[in-house]
Amino acid sequence: MATSDFTIATLVDMFPNVPLGRIRTVLASTHGDMDAAIDMLLDPSNARKRKAKPDIRCFFQSQSVARPPPKKVHITSSTPADSLHLTMASLVPWDPAKDPQKPKLLTLHTLNQHVPCLSLQTDFLPHDQASDMLTEMMAASADWIRTKWVIVDREVESPHHTQLYGLEEAHLARKADLYTNTGTAATNMQQFTPMLHAVKDPVEAAVNHALASRVRHPLEAPGPWVANLALGNVYRTSDQSVGSHSDTMTELGPRPTIASLTLGAERVFRIKRLATSTTPAQTFNVKLPHNSLLIMFPPFQECYRHEVPPQQPWQVKVHPVAGETRVNLTFRMMRANYVRHMPQCRCGKPAVLRTANRPSKKHVGEYFYMCAGSVPASCSYFCWLRDRLPLLLEGAATATASRDYGVDDQKS
User: Fold this and answer.
1) Identical fold at 1-49 and 104-337?
2) Given 82, 150, 174, 217, which residue has the most CB atoms within 10 angstroms?
3) Beta carbons within 8 Å of 2's beta carbon, 6+ residues apart
4) Residue ranges of the domains in the chain?
């Protein structure tokens, strides 16, 4: 879902002269395979299946010795318990052809070392407050909905349920502007509950304390970080998930900071670092326990993708009250100027803000607006953010930011 969305944005950056409708059609015909889509767009008559690249390790093995087939593993009730974790790991082997760098499991103590723009705090809220917040959200989630997006001219639904909260009535009044960017969750947007207000204060304090020691980019929101939006997600069973994506920046502006509070069951949070001209792609896994706060600093949304993958029930650390259910509250800061000056695409809807991520292209790291997608067809609207900076920035800040309108620090 969100992965296809990112692929379309990448192809738009690579082929600026190709109509967006053509790119969507080609991507649909290749079932989302970006490499195959690139082949077709470069040479439609040469759309043969790409040959698999050899694993570099084969050059260091004897040509006379064939690699043995992977051993099949059969698990029965007599399988020793102390070897079960090794057996489970072998069921899904690492495929170097798909992921050049072997995935790494990170902990509270190693997370910031490998992903400097993330910080994790455990036991964030007092025990009783975390329990009360979990109970309230689990009860409220009975009325939450599945978010819908338009991908390749068709409407798709998320596999989990969502609810969007606004801090004030003014934020609720802008829900129509948020419709395209946060899906149908915005059409049912509600005001912060008293308990959400109480949780918001320590979240803001933690974020602003951390931001005080970080270098701020000209395009980041100036001044204190204020959580005026909260997106709630509930995963009721271990197989409910959300695919690889970056959070929408349209109403948040470039380089947003987002704070994510986990309540209930412990689930894996998967992080995918995008490849750059100097750094290979890399996948990381970290477990987010009950009552933990993960802060995503800039440029996490621009340089990484994240997901909550489906898991087997035995892989999930259940909560004594919530069981397999995980509630996630992501606190965000909506920037009024980016909502007020959202460009309208030719479909008559707000365009979405994205980042060009292809390392080989000269525009890598720059921000652009494009059509969010419509049914039965999307338009070809495209606009660079730099062309709209005079509307978004005021006074002397315009001159400073216009010289530096991209993601300049992908190592952050």
Assistant:
1) no
2) 150
3) 149, 242, 243, 244, 245, 246, 305
4) 1-49, 104-337
Which of 261, 266, 331 is CA-nearest to residue 293?
261
Peptide bond into 299 cis (omega under 30): yes
User: What CATH number should be reported for the domain whose range is 1-49?
Assistant: 1.10.8
| CA gap 407, 412 in Å, rounded | 10
Mean pLDDT of 192-210: 97
Copy the structure tokens of residue 365: 């790291």
CB of 114 closer than 8 Å to CB of 271: no
Can you name the residues that pair with 84 across neighbouring β-strands?
none
Helices and strands, counts by H and E, the chain: 13, 17
Q: Which two tokens stand for residue 175?
A: 């829900």
What type of residue is 261? L
Q: Spell out the SS3 assignment of 243-310.
A: EEECCCCCCCCCCCCEEEEEEECEEEEEEEECCCCCCCCEEEEEEECCCEEEEECCCHHHHEEEEECC
Alpha-carbon span 330 to 89, nearest angstrom: 31
Overall fold of domain 104-337: Jelly Rolls (2.60.120)
SS3 182: helix
Q: How many CA atoms lie within 13 A of 166 on its CB side?
A: 20
Question: What confidence score (pLDDT) does residue 265 get?
Answer: 98
Are 247 and 230 in contact by the 8 Å Cβ rule? The answer is no
pLDDT digits (tens, 9 = 90+) for 36-89: 777 777 665 544 444 444 433 333 333 444 444 444 434 344 444 433 333 333
Distance between CA atoms of 323 and 361, rounded to whole angstroms? Answer: 47
